[in-house]
Design a protein that fits this description.
With about 260 residues, this protein is an alpha/beta fold. Helices cover about 50% and strands about 15% of the residues.
Length: about 260
């Protein structure tokens, strides 16, 4: 299958590690030029060097706090100035803290709103003038909580579903510009974030993290956690020319874990 990503420019947000980095790596391997971003400049420099060694697409990086609107606007501008275009936008953000409704403060709710939903709104708004020039793709990373709420993650359950509403609405508004927008939702993918959540649950129950992971795998038909590379493969397809007629949809990459239809 020809993905036709060579020469395209992709802005991949929060991409110095985890799922964001895996997507950036796959896009570079497919020949796309990629801007990566994150809050730690030295880490970004190292990851950019790692990606450049692949020898396909070009790579640049920009230190960015996506809770800062000025940083977001600068990130988009630098991407366009560096590569003269933006074809693909991958919205991503770190997960909000765990906690029950009664434990969480107004400040934690506000921070999670700005990190996990408003940042996506701002990034899309800033990138739209460039995406409109030749059409393109927007991919919003969410969570399996868009289909089935995760116990102890009320902030994620609330704001990740907001991403779905945003994507579905924009699918109609952006279609006249040949911009496709979709949501991709990871289940239990082997990342630092999942390890952290497993550890939180382990601490609550007084067991080790491996016990929690084994229990979680029992509930996954494929009996294992996914890899970031498997997640990135689906993302690359949705961002590619091979996807020409899917927009406003949500896609689970979860090994069959979520049972809803």
């Amino acid at each position: 299958m020809e993905l036709n990503l060579t020469g395209k420019t992709a802005l991949v947000v929060a991409s110095s590690q985890g799922l964001g980095f895996a997507i950036a790596e796959r896009l570079v391997k497919e020949g796309a030029n990629v801007m990566i971003s994150g809050r730690e400049e030295e880490k970004l420099r190292q990851k950019a060097s790692q990606l450049e060694s692949i020898g396909m697409g070009k790579v640049a990086y920009q230190k960015t706090d996506i809770m800062n609107v000025n940083d977001i606007n600068q990130l988009v501008k630098v991407t366009a100035d560096t590569f003269q275009r933006i074809d693909l936008l991958v919205n991503n953000a770190g997960g909000p803290p765990a906690g029950s409704f009664e434990e969480l403060t107004d400040e934690e709710w506000q921070n999670s709103f700005e990190l996990n939903l408003l940042s996506y709104v701002r990034l899309i708004r800033a990138a739209l003038p460039y995406l409109k020039q030749q059409g393109g793709k927007i991919l919003n990373i969410a969570s399996s909580s868009i289909k089935e709420p995760i116990p102890g993650l009320i902030l994620s359950n609330t704001f990740r579903t907001g991403i779905v509403g945003l994507s579905k609405t924009l699918a109609s508004e952006l279609a006249p510009y040949n911009i496709l927008i979709n949501t991709i939702a990871p289940g239990r993918i082997a990342t630092d974030r999942v390890n952290h959540l497993d550890q939180v649950n382990a601490d609550k129950l007084g067991v080790d993290r491996e016990t929690i992971a084994l229990k979680a795998k029992e509930g996954i038909p494929l009996k294992r956690y996914g890899t970031p590379e498997e997640f990135a493969n689906v993302a690359a397809f949705l961002l590619s020319d091979a996807n020409s007629y899917m927009t406003g949809s949500s896609f689970l990459v979860d090994g069959g874990m979520i049972k809803t239809i």
